[in-house]
Amino acid sequence: MVRVGRPSGPAEATAEVVLRAALTLLLEEGGAALTPQRLHQLTSVSRATIYRHWPTPTDVLAALIDVAPDPERPLTGDPVRDVHAEVDALCDRLHEKPVATFLQALVAMAATDPAAVELRQRYVDGLIAPFYRALNGADLPPTEVKDAVAAIVSPLLVDALLLDRPAARVRAHRVVDLHVRPSSARQEADPASSHGRPGRE
Amino acid sequence: MVRVGRPSGPAEATAEVVLRAALTLLLEEGGAALTPQRLHQLTSVSRATIYRHWPTPTDVLAALIDVAPDPERPLTGDPVRDVHAEVDALCDRLHEKPVATFLQALVAMAATDPAAVELRQRYVDGLIAPFYRALNGADLPPTEVKDAVAAIVSPLLVDALLLDRPAARVRAHRVVDLHVRPSSARQEADPASSHGRPGRE
Amino acid sequence: MVRVGRPSGPAEATAEVVLRAALTLLLEEGGAALTPQRLHQLTSVSRATIYRHWPTPTDVLAALIDVAPDPERPLTGDPVRDVHAEVDALCDRLHEKPVATFLQALVAMAATDPAAVELRQRYVDGLIAPFYRALNGADLPPTEVKDAVAAIVSPLLVDALLLDRPAARVRAHRVVDLHVRPSSARQEADPASSHGRPGRE
Amino acid sequence: MVRVGRPSGPAEATAEVVLRAALTLLLEEGGAALTPQRLHQLTSVSRATIYRHWPTPTDVLAALIDVAPDPERPLTGDPVRDVHAEVDALCDRLHEKPVATFLQALVAMAATDPAAVELRQRYVDGLIAPFYRALNGADLPPTEVKDAVAAIVSPLLVDALLLDRPAARVRAHRVVDLHVRPSSARQEADPASSHGRPGRE
DNA sequence: ATTTAACCGAGACGGTACGTCCCGTCTTTAC
DNA sequence: GTAAAGACGGGACGTACCGTCTCGGTTAAAT
Hints:
The structure is a homotetramer. Chain A has helices at about 10-30, 35-45, 45-55, 55-65, 80-95, 100-110, 115-135, 140-160, 170-180. By secondary structure, chain A is mainly α.
């Protein structure tokens, strides 16, 4: 079938100006401010236009998430080292606000819009996935992998979500050491082995 | 100065009928439904009356929290056992909805109302406090206590808040065993020692 | 049952200011201008308030009609004279705009709102009724009464509605003389008998 | 200057399909439905195309009126007979809807669009003209001709426009007899002379 | 067969009004 | 003083249509 007529979707300029304003709004006033009304006021893009392309605030948030994917970090092959790297990366992202704010906004939206539930799911999965990837090389049974990831990541998320405080980076590193030692190494492990990393907290 | 006239505060009947409706609303439609409007519709208590006694939705939520305090569990003196008991208690409360819903509502409200931020803080502290209490008896350094509590509780909260799934009870018990062994016992610990507890998950 | 609380219906001030503005609008811009939006702009009464009390433009028009009822003219007992008086009265009312404008508005609204159809019916009946009342005394058979009223009134309405010109007063008086002579008198009638009336047209 | 390229104006197929839909819309939903939007929905002719050829709803209505002119009836030379024939013709046209609907639509549009005022004028003139033509042969003074036409036609229009009822055909015939007798014949007139016509009402 | 002007469909876009909903405050009345 | 009933201004919501516009692809006459 031959396509005729003007191409569909927002003109590039429109999409850019709206999403840029959306990011600003989100960071400065939180997810509840991502309304068509506020976006219109900030961008002077017509309210109707915004509804056309992003019918719900969830759609705006989804578009925001899509434009800033998390770049993959290269694996060294050493699981312990890789997991520590991921901890640092996640703490950095949580510290630089957008990720923590995205999470807060997703939780708040999920209370209203079922579509946001799924989005929240995918977003959290995206945050956790790198840890599973890093732990792939360690010879741990699946249960221990899951436990380790949960014990490492959850406190960071809780810090960002519930306690409004910077992610507890050094604690996370300690938990990594506790969980990710290969079982064979646990008795002989040198507890100071991970002290070379920069404790940025 | 002598007080004259009708005593202040809502008549008991009013307060009860409103808060009962508020709980129903909260559980069935989430924190965003806790509006004067909805409460009025459900209770046929006048909107003006509701505004008088609970000026903001946060006040309603705070009143709800106050009426259902968490009863303290008696301590046995055995930290390991007490922490396991607390894990079970928290999982039960998260499972029976109110607590998880309170948390979601508090997070959502905190995005809007600063007063809710403080309330959220206090509520989370109330959830965590029993674990610190239980670990009081264990001869662990403060850092390890904090790490342990975080590693135990955070995954449960994340399950309830972010992943909409029942709290991972057995995993939490495993994590307790991993963290709460008294340090002196870690080498000789029998990893099967906690298998007697009922795995209710 | 005891009535409690503030009495229902618009406060007097509100109703007056809105209806006054509605009349101005109607006369200056026609029935299509009787929208909540325009009324709000002119009165700075809130749009919501207007919707509360007059949910449709037809309701506004109905309220307008209710506040300005046509006062009854006294009957002399002489049908011919009374009908001539009614012709003058109707021409005056059509000339002074409100009635003609009401009619136009009612026709236009009736195209959209079924409620306006009934209102239009009642309004037209109200315009015609005085003629039937005046002709009551004449000893004419019912058919001739109807014919006479139609022949007298219709051209006036058509002038106002379709041709945007002042009602043809003198023609209407001629038609009265043609239709309302008592049949016994038609042969002997002095065609100049009605020349004493002031020809205001 | 030599014209080159595709000729201007709508392709025949486009014009026909749009006007056919416009007529349907007009009859079923009234003049207010004659919008570019509705025409587009019914015909799947692009909205832009419709704007190109009929910039306002009034233009659509004008085009509709142009495509269905009233065919002239032949005159017999007998004014009385001819006028009766015209009465029947007008009643038929009013009864078959389009004319009555056109009138209603024209009145409604005239409230908004000044261009429709002129159109309405022309349309009404077109309805009345045949009566003047038929009365041309009668030896009546101009004033009486005007009175007669008004008394005959106006009630029919009022029936269609204001009272939503079928045109009162037999009354119209009676009024013809009353007005159109040549003055010389009025004394000797046989009032039953017109009873031979079929009373279709 | 090419030009060339116009048609035509698809859709973006700003704008405006719609009718609804809830907010928070106020006034009126009854108890 | 408490409470109910309800008016009121305010503001956002989501929808609908308006009129204009920019794209592309198509069509039909004149060269």
